[in-house]
Structure formats: structure tokens, C-alpha cells
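Researcher: Quick sanity check before group meeting.
Model: Go ahead. Protein one:
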Amino acid sequence: MAPRHLRLASRRIPFKVVLFILLILVPTCVIGILIHAQHISYLFRPLWDNPPSPFKHLPHYYAENVPMEHLCLLHGWSLRSKPRRVFDAIIFSNELDILEIRWRELHPYITKFVILESNTTFTGIPKPLFFDSNWSRFAFAKEKIVHGSFSGRIAARGKHEDPFVLESEQRKAMSGLLRSSGISNGDLIIMSDADEIPSPHTVKLLQWCDKIPHAIHLELKHYMYSFEFPVDYSSWRATIQIFGPQTRYRHSRQTDLILSDSGWHCSFCFRRLQEFVFKMTAYSHADRVRRKDFLNYSRIQKLICRGDDLFDMLPEEYTFRELIKKMGPIPHSASAVHLPSYLIENADKFRFLLPGGCLRSQE
């Protein structure tokens, strides 16, 4: 048997191997982790993050030609002698097509459309007042529009403002604009982004029924890029609530109650590729643009038609089951049923939002 010191020597790792590990393998692993940190974080999210507490889903009853009194009773409510006034309040960026569909769809039920627009994005980039320069497009609602402008802070060259701070400032400004719009205690207020559209029958139900909850979230069917790509029913931030002295404009969780199947949320539903680029660099999650080629028009076009993620991200899920289920492109849908009626009535104008219309204009 070989002496002990010879056996130990034979087990030593060769110097070249140690050098390879220290100078090549370790730096390569570190660089790989840094480059793909977001993917790694989202891949293991079920291990490090906890889902929010679940909502209490309220059943939503509706069918055409059913009397409103019967619908109110089905929900455990009663019919009012007259409808509540409804104020639709949104902070606007550049979603002109979606805004037109939203306002046309809800126009018969809304008392005032309250819209706040800033001259900067949430990231502090100067931007045109898109709504202000397109007033004629919304002339059909001019008697109902309360429009306010917000002077945002412009970020220093090469830097970005904290998007969540600027977003919070605009929401505070919206609270002030609402109070100058003529809203009164007991009126209904819709708090949502422009692309979170309550269905008309949802608004009508809450407008006409008594004993409804003081505040209720709206479960919206979520679509990406157009109504050809339905994702799920995960959209919950939109709310309708009864206005009172303590009401503040918010886009966060306000109650555990959510009304099922209450409308549509169409994310990144733009007509032109330049509008995609604008939003990708302007909204609160602009940090997801990790490389300049993310903003390449041909890349964006391919991803839209495939139903794939613009930011090359994994799904934001809290269980491995849902994570695996939602990996890859969003399945195409050929259905254009139960969509906003104004969209279907003007299908030629909004072909890009319907099945088969994935190609976008560059201008």
C-alpha cells in the first residue's frame, strides 16, 4: 500500500484546473447570473414570494332583455328609483384608439368623463399632450369631458425619475380634478386605466341597484396586443365605488370584494409600432427594456403576431403549475364574441384589434 502522503498528493486538484475554475468558470457563472437575473428571479418566484390574499368573488348575473329589477335581486340588491350619477376617471398617456372605444361604449351611462394628462411620462420623459391635440376625435362627448393637464417633472439627461413616485403624484392630482368635476357624495366613480374597460351592463347594474358594496373591484378579461390573444381573468385593479369625503383616486387593492367577469383589459393594444415603443419606455415598468434591440420595430412585430412577450420575461406567477402553464406564446383565439359593441360595429376601423389583424403600421 502506498504511503499516506503519496495518496493525499494523488488526490490534489491540478493547478490548471483550479486556475480554470477561478479565472473562467466562476466569472462566467457570475456574468450569466447577472445577465439572466430577472429570468432566474421569476423562475423561482414560487419559492421566495407569497401571493396576495384571495379575493371574494361575487357572482355576476346578466343576460339580454332581463329586467334590471330581476338582475338586482339576483345579486341580493334592490332596484333604485333613479340611477346614480357615474364619473369615469382615468390618467391618460397615449391610448387614443382604446380611449375612443371605451368612451363610445360607456357614453350612455357616464355623467362626466374625467381625464388627466401629463406633459411627461411616468419615467420623466417629455411627451406631447396626445388627448389635447385630438379633441375633435372625442367631440361626441364634449359636454361630458372634464380635462386636466399635469405638469410633470422632467428627468435629467441620461437619468430616469422614479416612475412610481411620478405616478403617485398624478393620482393625487386626479383626486383634486375629481373634486372640481362636480362629483358629489353618493355618486359612483370608476377608477381604472384607459385600457381597463368595464362592460356597459356592469356599469348599468351598479348604477341602478341599491345596497351595493361601498367599493368593489372589477374582474376583467385580460388580453394582450389585441382581442386575438386572451390571457386570463387576472386583471383586478379597476374599481367602482361610491364617492365619499375620504375617497382618494387609487389603482391598488381597496377591498376583498371583486365582481366576476366585468369587462375587458387590453394591454399594449396599439395601432402603430411607434406607440408600442413609446409605452415600453414610458410606463412604470420601463426598466424591463434591458437592451436597445427590444425596441426594434421588426422584433416587436414578430412578437405581436406570435403572441410572445415584448420584454422576454417569464410569467409573473406564484406557483410552478401556473408558471409552466403560461410559458410560451399566448394561444390565438378566433372568437370575436362578447367584445365591446362599438369595436364590432367599427370592425374595419379597428381591424388591428380583431383576430387576424396582428400586422401594425410603422407610422
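Researcher: Fine. The other one?
Model: Protein two, sequence then structure:
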Amino acid sequence: MSDAFCSDCKRETEVVFDHSAGDTVCSECGLVLESHSIDETSEWRTFANESNDNDPVRVGGPSNPLLTDGGLSTVIAKPNGSSGEFLSSSLGRWQNRGSNPDRGLILAFKTIATMSDRLGLVGTIKDRANEIYKRVEDQKSSRGRNQDALLAACLYIACRQEDKPRTVKEICSVANGATKKEIGRAKEYIVKQLGLEKGQSVEMGTIHAGDFMRRFCSNLGMNNQAVKAAQEAVKKSEEFDIRRSPISIAAAVIYIITQLSDDKKPLKDISIATGVAEGTIRNSYKDLYPHVSKIIPNWYAKEEDLKNLSSP
């Protein structure tokens, strides 16, 4: 039940919704306040363990403006029964003869959706990646290129543009066999093509070490206090001229923070969680070490604790 204004009662009253008739009725005087209203609640859902014969779904998927027909084309299913098999075989042949211009796009969008789900990305990033791929595909210049690398690169660029960056190594882990080098080349190719389309350079968004910090700390199982200290430290590190990649700085800061805590993490574990080589973390630690007293928050570690840090 919910409240609505009744013109007969002249006040807000409780109303009842009659689902069978689509009427909204005042619970006190019985006046029909709204008739034949459209039910906008969620549709029935079919779960994986339910039989296909009892599918209660009455609608198709959502429309997709990136597809020629909006993704609302009709597909002839194969019904049961001998006559049904004959009918489906006849119509099915005609359906298969008709070429679907969006078949490649649909498969590409499904691959992007699968990669996004495996990385736990939000829907806006997936939609942005679909849009980037569609723009590249419309230029008809990607034929012969590694499709998996191209799709992975679209997802990488989408993450950057949505300010939720992922490392190339993370993207590579879900890229169906595409290597980091192949994804890097595909990224450069896409940026070039989109730049030619717009007549200007493509905005990729700036990567900061802090963008990766919470996720890396979560992978290592660090406590909230250590995570907060790492975030403050990596933000402070931006004030100094440390010529390392943001991912390397993030890994080095995590190493320092864990060495100052009771729950010390081995360098190997940090390397696995961040995707940064152990040697790179050591070199980044060397660059951060002279500034460690200004980077690490005072509330997290005292000056004598910082002196006990092993020198690089």
C-alpha cells in the first residue's frame, strides 16, 4: 500500500493497486483514482536450473542503440514436435541465409561483457568500451588485426576514460590469450584511429598511484588502518619528483607501509598482488626512501620506526 490524494475524501489516503485490472483504488471510499496503468515493475526471470519449456519471460533484452536494428530483431526458435521441426527447418534455413550486419558487433559486445564481469567493472565502463569498439569498427580499418587484443584495448581505454583504470596486466588476464605487447599495439592503433576521426588527440585520463591503492591493499588483505596510511602516503608522494610509473609507486608505498606494521608482507606477495616485478618494487623503494619521513603519516609511524626501515 501507498498514499495518494483522493478527490472524494479530499485528503491523502491509502490506496490499493489491483494488478489484474491495472486500477489504483482508494482504500476508504473505493474511488478508482487511476485505471489501466502500466506495470513498470521487473519482469519474470529465468534461472539456469529452470526448464526452457516453462520460460515465463514475455519480453526480450533491452534495446542497444549501437546496433542497426537496436538489438530488437526477431529470431525463429526451434519448437518441439515433428511438425514444429519441419517448420523450424524451413524457416531456419531462410533465417540463416539472411546476413545479419551486426553479428560481429554482437559477438564483440558479448566478449567485452564477459571480460568486464571477470574484472568486476561497472556497466558504464562496459558501455564505453562497446562505444569505442563500434567507432573503430565503423572505420573499416581493423580487419586482419588481433580481435581479442582490440577488444581488450577498448576495455583498457574505457577504464582510463571513466577514471577507474586497470593495469595492462589485469586486462591481459581476461583477454583470451592476447599478450601485453599485442594489447599495447592495439591501444595505440585505437587512439590513432579515434584521433583521426575527431581531428584531435583522444583524452585518456591521467593515472594516479592512488587509483590502484585500495584494490591492491584489498588483494593483500591489509587492515583499514594500513589502507588509510597507504592512501595518504601515496597522495603525499605526488609532491615529489619520483620518476616512476604510478603502479610502481603504489607497490613501493604498500611495501613500506607493511614493513612498518606487525603484519609484514613478503615482497613476492606484493609483486603478485600488484603485478609489478620484485626488482621494479625495489628500485621504486630506493627512489622513495629519501622522502619516507615526509610521505608516511605521523599517526601511523614514529620517527624511530622510520629509522628502523632497511635502507635500499
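Researcher: One line on it for the slide.
Model: The chain has a mean pLDDT of 81.
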